[in-house]
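thought: user wants a sequence for this fold. calling inverse folding tool.
action: design(structure=
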């Protein structure tokens, strides 16, 4: 019987990759990278062999989708920010079996879901960035297997994403996997306008967004998820939640939804990045 080894909300800002490179931003995301590495360490200590990533950088317009090939490899350059992520090499094993189990459970719950084993279907950087740092310090044979879930759900209901998350949990429990589950997306996501982008490399665009993000994190730390679930639709709308914050809805659906009372542990304190709000945090299972 499979189990969830660890669950977390994580950032995937492309400036993490830029932080590795020589230049004016070298080292700027050391704390975020350290948060990823600590999540991976704890996941492995708990026996995790597979990562399921709710990726808000994978846009879909109809249905719920999983990328669950047995093997991924390539060289990635961001179409959105090619001056941040360029020629990033990757190679991971996948889990077609787990992806199909998730789709089966979600469809049985009346959430239309497709599991894809398509060689030309590539991973997005909401999956590639965390996997880069969470596999960086271990031998290749110890890398997490990857199942990527589209979580930029442009025309979907948050309620369906809660239901989908619960289906992911049931599928994991039916499998033979120990799984690290990652909601890969930001808090607020109001990018700075182009002429202010460079000045706001390490800031929020609006003080309103920063204040709401900080309040949300306090609710999470206190385990007040009934209140957070009530505010989530408005939060996603008024603070421009990345991908509609469907990654967060999926994560909470996995953990019990409105009934969840876990007190979140923040590993990387909220920080501004190109106008958006980011963090790394563990959600107790």
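)
observation: tool returned 285 residues.
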């Amino acid at each position: 019987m499979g189990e969830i080894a660890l669950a977390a909300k994580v950032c995937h800002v492309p400036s993490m990759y830029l932080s590795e490179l020589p230049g004016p931003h070298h080292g700027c995301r050391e704390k975020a990278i350290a948060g990823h590495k600590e999540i991976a360490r704890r996941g492995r200590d708990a026996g995790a062999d597979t990562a399921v990533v709710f990726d808000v950088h994978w846009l879909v317009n109809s249905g719920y989708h999983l990328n669950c090939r047995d093997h991924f490899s390539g060289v990635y350059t961001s179409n959105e920010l090619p001056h941040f992520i360029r020629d990033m090499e990757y190679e991971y094993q996948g889990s077609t079996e787990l992806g199909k189990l998730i789709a089966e459970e979600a469809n049985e719950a009346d959430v239309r879901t497709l599991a894809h084993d398509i060689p030309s279907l590539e991973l997005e950087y909401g999956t590639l960035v965390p996997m880069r740092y969470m596999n960086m310090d271990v031998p290749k044979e110890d890398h997490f297997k990857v199942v990527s879930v589209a979580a930029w759900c442009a025309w979907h209901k948050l309620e369906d994403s809660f239901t989908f998350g619960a289906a992911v949990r049931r599928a994991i429990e039916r499998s033979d996997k120990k799984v690290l589950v990652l909601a890969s997306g930001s808090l607020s996501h109001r990018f700075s306008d182009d002429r202010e982008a460079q000045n706001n490399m390490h800031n929020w665009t609006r003080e309103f967004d920063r204040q709401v993000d900080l309040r949300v994190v306090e609710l999470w730390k206190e385990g007040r998820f009934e209140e957070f679930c009530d505010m989530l639709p408005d939060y996603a709308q008024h603070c421009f939640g990345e991908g509609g914050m469907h990654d967060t809805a999926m994560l909470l659906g996995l953990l019990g939804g409105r009934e969840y009372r876990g007190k979140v542990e923040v590993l990387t304190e909220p920080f501004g990045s190109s106008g958006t709000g980011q963090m790394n945090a563990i959600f107790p299972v």
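thought: summarizing for user.
answer: Here is the designed sequence. The chain has one domain: 3-283.
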